[in-house]
Specification:
The protein has helices at 3-16, 22-34, 38-44, 51-65, 70-74, 98-111, 128-138, 153-165, 224-227, 243-255, 271-280, 306-318, and strands spanning 77-79, 82-84, 118-122, 145-150, 171-174, 204-209, 256-265, 283-290, 296-303. By secondary structure, the protein is α/β, with parallel strands linked by helices. The longest helix is centred in the N-terminal third of the chain and has 15 residues, at 51-65. It is elongated.
């Protein structure tokens, strides 16, 4: 069978299985299995497909037909300008989350353009947020101290792999939210020694997080690719979706330097709830940023310095 016919067969099978963008996925898998770029595929479309690779391709088509995510099949996803390794231990990074990274980088450019900062990426998963921040700042000649934190050892394995492949000098910490930073030892021998944090910071200039925020009752309604294959630990935000926001925001003042900032990805209907939590925790300058679809996506706040915090909180509460 020639390559083009094989690709058409793959497209047909994916369409039959109800896969969105079947033609794109089929072509992507053809290029992946046969080691072709776009030009080589066009020039070689009428060539005979190597039997062994054709068999491998059709197996992957069947895997994708089961709604197994394409990114997990290829162990790759583009995020910002980098290529990240992913598997079932972590959520697949979405382009919406790039808005979160862009907001953090904009803040750092405006407030610490040439000065290194300490940044904590809480619930890091693949590490895409913290690593992207580190690499973007490194490209500008700024060597920030970036810590990637997660409760999942498997997620930290993936984050460590990405840090190594992308040459990002970040620290990895296994922790249940802030526990490891409070003096409790939640380190793990399963985190690669080269990536383990031996000098854990307990104060940061910036905390950024894309925590689990899907309501438990909503999860069964999600796409099969998400609810059947992505890690529930990274999706489920409990009954109201706010479980981790309460912890991350509520305890943040203990771990942020005065004047430090927090940036959070949120669901489309979670701004008011997160704003109230930020006010109660002593944050001011609270901002909301929408994504390209016009949905609420990122909320941020600045921790007021002690001498002005009470006045600003009172104004936000009663003004």
């Amino acid at each position: 069978m020639i390559l083009y016919e094989l690709m058409q067969q793959g497209t047909g099978r994916l369409e039959e299985a109800g896969i969105d963008n079947a033609a794109y996925d089929s072509k992507t898998l053809i290029k992946y299995v046969f080691g072709l770029d776009e030009t080589a595929l066009i020039l070689g479309r009428d060539k005979e497909a190597e039997a062994e690779k054709a068999e491998e391709y059709l197996k992957l088509i069947e895997k994708r037909a089961s709604h197994y995510p394409l990114q997990y099949i290829m162990h790759s996803v583009g995020f910002m300008e980098y290529d990240f390794y992913v598997d079932e231990a972590v959520l697949i990074p979405r382009s919406d989350t790039e808005v979160l990274v862009e907001e953090v980088l904009k803040y750092l450019d405006e407030n610490s353009a040439d000065k290194p900062v300490s940044l904590l990426d809480m619930c890091t998963g693949s590490g895409c947020i913290g690593i992207s921040c580190f690499l973007s700042r490194k490209a500008k000649g700024v060597a920030d101290s970036v810590t990637l934190a997660d409760i999942s050892e498997e997620a930290l394995r993936v984050a460590g792999k990405n840090a190594e492949q992308l040459e990002a000098g970040v620290k990895l910490v296994k922790t249940d939210v802030y526990e490891a930073f409070s003096g409790k030892d939640n380190g793990s021998d399963d985190v690669p020694a080269a990536q383990a944090a031996t000098d854990i910071n307990n104060r940061f200039d910036v905390i950024v997080s894309n925590p689990p925020y899907i309501r438990s009752d909503v999860i069964p309604t999600l796409m099969e690719e998400v609810k059947d294959f992505e890690p529930m630990l990274a999706l489920d935000g409990d009954k109201d979706g706010m479980k981790f926001y309460r912890r991350i925001i509520g305890e943040a003042p203990k771990y942020l330097n005065p004047g430090g900032a927090i940036f959070l990805e949120i669901g489309y209907d979670q701004y008011e709830d997160t704003r109230k939590l930020l006010v109660e925790a002593g944050f001011t300058d609270i901002k909301l940023v929408k994504d390209l679809a016009g949905l609420d996506r990122v909320v941020s706040g600045k921790l007021a310095k002690e001498e002005v915090r009470k006045i600003e909180i009172d104004l936000l509460r009663f003004g």
